[in-house]
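Quiz preparation item.
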């Protein structure tokens, strides 16, 4: 993979990794805060986790899309 295709693939890979890390962080935070019900409720509860996983999921899918486009349109 050469030139601009490599840059697009690298950017997609970075987005994929950041999205994966965001999902892992959201789940880890939920587990930690769920141990203390008052802290969990005060910090937004399940809504916080859903929003964070949703945003990270969009980033993850965008990264997969960028990597796919870089592979398809390489020249």
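Solution:
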């Amino acid at each position: 993979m050469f030139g601009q295709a490599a840059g697009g693939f690298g950017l997609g890979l970075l987005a994929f990794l950041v999205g994966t890390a965001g999902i892992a962080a959201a789940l880890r935070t939920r587990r930690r805060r769920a141990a203390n019900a008052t802290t969990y409720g005060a910090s937004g509860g399940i809504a916080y986790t859903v929003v964070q996983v949703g945003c990270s999921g969009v980033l993850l899918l965008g990264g997969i899309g960028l990597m796919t486009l870089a592979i398809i349109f390489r020249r």
